[in-house]
From TrEMBL:
Residue ranges annotated for the C2 domain, each copy included: 1-103
Name the record gives this protein: Putative ADP-ribosylation factor GTPase-activating protein AGD13
Family affiliation: Belongs to the plant CAR protein family.
UniProt keyword list: Abscisic acid signaling pathway, Calcium, Cell membrane, GTPase activation, Lipid-binding, Membrane, Metal-binding, Nucleus
Organism: Apostasia shenzhenica
Compartment(s) of residence: Cell membrane; Nucleus
Length: 180
């Protein structure tokens, strides 16, 4: 835990045109992984355009590790059906967080990331200076599925010392499951 660089607050906003895995709809949820961390959103019943608007917080020790998303359809009597996956690199975002942007106008674009064969961006993703913080919004196209996108926002939380980190995590209700 002494290598913690900060916390990445990931807001899973919504899914768009997700794959149908039940009769006429799906019951989607998202699993987010980074290294050995695994977090999960709630299930949205019977909706291929779900609005999660849910915050998940990852502990960042190595910004070179990708963040991986997997979308599943919740099933009661069988294994959950896969609905696609995506991943993104936080290195450009982390580099922006390390810079000093005080005095810049609100909303200014720090860096623009474009879709290419190496990423899952459905469109350009801007890293911006908003309300005194570095923010990034992205739409990721899901892979290994016929259709679907996930919209996310990233926010960074600095950790002044490992002592304050231990206190804030122990008081948090969010569950971080190790990947087995």
């Amino acid at each position: 835990m002494d290598r913690v660089l900060g916390l990445l607050r990931l807001r899973v906003l919504r899914g768009v045109n997700l794959a149908i895995r039940d009769f006429y709809s799906s019951d989607p949820y998202v699993i987010v992984r980074m290294g050995k961390q695994k977090l999960k959103t709630r299930v949205i019943k019977k909706n291929v355009n779900p609005e999660w608007n849910e915050e998940l917080t990852l502990i960042v020790e190595d910004p070179a590790l990708p963040v991986k998303l997997e979308v599943y359809d919740r099933d009661r009597f069988s294994f959950d059906d896969p609905m696609g996956e995506a991943e993104f690199d936080i290195q450009p975002y982390f580099e922006a967080v390390q810079m000093d942007f005080k005095g810049l106008p609100d909303g200014i674009i720090i860096r623009k990331l474009l879709p290419n064969r190496q990423n899952c961006f459905a469109e350009g993703s801007d890293i911006r200076w908003v309300n005194g913080k570095v923010s990034q919004e992205m739409i990721l196209r899901l892979k290994n599925v016929e259709c679907g996108e996930i919209q996310l926002q990233l926010h960074w939380i600095s950790i002044p010392s490992s002592t304050s980190f231990e206190v804030s995590v122990s008081s948090s209700k969010q569950q971080v499951d190790p990947v087995l």
